[in-house]
Specification:
Blueprint: H1 4-10, E1 12-19, H2 25-35, E2 38-41, H3 48-54, E3 66-69, H4 79-89, E4 95-103, H5 106-116, H6 128-139, E5 148-151, H7 157-168, E6 177-184, E7 195-198, H8 219-226, H9 231-251, E8 256-263, H10 269-283, E9 288-292
Parallel strand pairs: 1-3, 1-4, 2-3, 4-5, 6-8, 6-9, 7-8
Helix pairs in contact: 2-7, 5-6, 9-10
């Protein structure tokens, strides 16, 4: 029997990478190339179909997965036309097209251009800020049609590639890939998070001198947090909430889900809970990556 899943696997993966200049398009294409895609940058829209045909391979061979980069620097770029082309591609039965839109906050983009000493493509003779504002006005609406939107402002290159792998890696395990992360509320919510849980109500090891410099990965810290009378109930309810959601995300075709657990300093309580949650998810057969965003940043300050 041919299922919806098997039909999807027979379709040629295709990722169109676009977004704001300086948000990481080149980095994304390099990562996709590492994953096994044929990655090509700055493809004029009118040549996209020709390039697809030229990379189909020989008869009987599986066509190579494709990743094309297009943004305002591309010759003849038209944001509205790009959205229309993606709508047409989604009707094809031989393709599995996905639109990736990369963005970043204005200050991050300004800093990246300042550090690279390059002019903005929309403002070669004007201040970089003019180009950033103009481009956001011109193509910001494309994000509404994207399958995946990633804000790269807070991401290290390694974390960015992890997220891309979760969304676009070829083959591997079926179902939604999961990322579990801990973080410090003091340093802001992780923008890539889909589900966020707050562990700040639990007993805080930061105020125990022998535990202050340890983290939620240390057995003594975990043992201390587990003495909180509400800890076990919290873990049980967290699992009872997340567990039934995952098959629904699978059914909707969601490729990647980020679950974030936060506390004050991102060193103790959130780390311990994230470790427990990731371990439980792996035991259910899920593909899970685990990161602790702020675990090494809170030494000597109010932690948790």
């Amino acid at each position: 029997m041919i299922t919806a899943s098997s039909m999807s696997e027979q379709r040629r993966p295709f990722v169109l990478v676009t977004g704001l200049s300086g948000a990481g398009r080149a980095t994304a294409l390099h990562a996709l190339e590492d994953f096994g895609y044929v990655a090509v940058d700055n493809i004029p829209l009118r040549l996209m179909s020709d390039l697809m045909r030229s990379t189909t391979g020989n008869a009987g061979e599986m066509a190579a997965p494709l990743a094309f980069g297009i943004d305002t620097r591309t010759y003849g770029f038209d944001a509205a036309e790009l959205v229309r082309r993606m709508q047409d591609l989604r009707q094809r039965t031989d393709l599995a097209p996905r639109l990736l839109f990369l963005t970043a906050d204005t200050e991050t983009l300004r800093r990246r251009y300042t550090e690279s000493r390059r002019p903005h493509p929309l403002a070669p003779d004007r201040p970089v800020m003019d180009g950033i504002v103009d481009e956001r006005d011109q193509i910001g609406f494309v994000a509404d049609s994207a399958d995946v939107v990633i804000d790269t402002s807070p991401l290290t290159p390694h974390r960015f590639k992890q997220i891309l792998s979760g969304h676009f890696a070829l083959g591997g395990t079926s179902g939604t890939r999961l990322a579990v992360m801990s973080f410090s509320f003091r340093r802001g919510l992780p923008r890539e998070a889909d589900l966020v849980f707050d562990a700040r109500f639990l007993k805080n090891p930061h105020y125990v001198p022998d535990l202050k410099q340890q983290t939620g990965r240390d057995a003594a810290v975990v043992a201390f947090i587990e003495t909180d009378p509400d800890y076990r109930a919290f873990i049980d309810r967290l699992q009872a909430l997340v567990g039934p959601l995952l098959p629904r995300f699978d059914a909707e075709g969601k490729s990647y889900l980020t679950i974030a657990v936060g506390c004050t300093g991102g060193r103790h309580r959130s780390v311990a809970v994230a470790e427990t949650l990731a371990d439980w998810l792996r035991k259910t057969g899920r593909s899970v990556t685990l990161t602790h965003r702020d675990v090494d940043l809170g030494r000597g300050r109010q932690g948790g």
